[in-house]
Amino acid sequence: MLVGATIVVGMRAEDGELTSKHQPLLVLSKITEILDAFSLSRPSMTLGEIHQATGLPTSTVQRLVSNLVAQEFLDRSGDQIRIGVKMAFWAATATKGLDVLAVVTPVLKEIRDATGETASFFRVEQGYRVCVAIAETEHALRRNMYVGKIVPLPAGSAGRVLLAWNPDLTEQVLAGPIEPMTEGTVTDTAVLRELIHQARADGYAITAGEREDSASGLAAPVFDSSADVLGALAISGPTLRMPREQCEKWVDLLVGSAEQVTRTLGGRYPS
Q: Name one Pfam family in it (predicted).
């Protein structure tokens, strides 16, 4: 954050010595408020919307946005303003070589601590979804999940999310027969296609009893810098503790966590 930034102001005394004092550069606080107003769910705004989001005076917003556009920190197209390409270049430099699991693991622990349920991160590997990171629940009754576990893509919330933003993989999955894992597994390809489309429209997926009987899952996507789906954050547990209404209460938490990981990794949402 830039809020605490300071500048050193040099003052030459009559005796020729240089003295200095620190003064807060308040304009940086205002610039930070403007930049922080943008998010993956709100990538572009008008001046009026920036004013509403920040609470800064209209004249201040107009002046700072004009200067930020001139310096390419922001881009303007008509009345729409968004983060500039120069900022994206800096972000790419900052995230180069960043370990995905180093970013994901603490977020999983935060989700686990907030919900009390197991939080996992899945990626696609050779036509399956694989658990690559996990923060396990402390409940004795838990789903059978561990790092390295391989699960068919069609069953469960994480698989649905991974398919929702990967059309080519979706077509491959829907082209072949879908083997049921439980009585609740969706094996009708027409129905599954609609559910995949719905997950993309919603930005998340909730399932129950598809991979394991009496078990529920909630998943949201994480994206890379090319706007391709990188993986899926998921919360899982017994349906007894995770009925649909409880899953719906955790949607904002999970989607917000997935957005946090995406932003930290320099990712962006598909347009």
A: IclR_C
Nearest to 154 by CA among 134, 125, 174: 174
Task: Report the C-alpha gap between 139 and 143 in whole angstroms.
Answer: 10
The Cα 185–Cα 229 span in angstroms is: 23
Report residue 145: phi and psi, to 5°.
-140, 140
Query: Strand 215-223 and strand 205-208: pairing?
Result: antiparallel
35 sits in the region (left: phi over 0; alpha: psi -120 to 50; else beta) called alpha
50-67: pLDDT as tens digits: 999 999 999 999 999 999
User: Full-prediction pTM beyond 0.90?
Assistant: no
DSSP-derived pairing of the beta strands 215-223 and 229-238: antiparallel
Q: Which band of pLDDT confidence, cut at 50, 70 and 90, is reported for residue 17?
A: very low
Separation of alpha carbons 167 and 165, rounded Å:
6
Domains detected in the chain = 26-95 (1.10.10.10), 97-265 (3.30.450.40)
pLDDT (tens digit per residue) in 84-102: 877 766 655 554 545 788 8
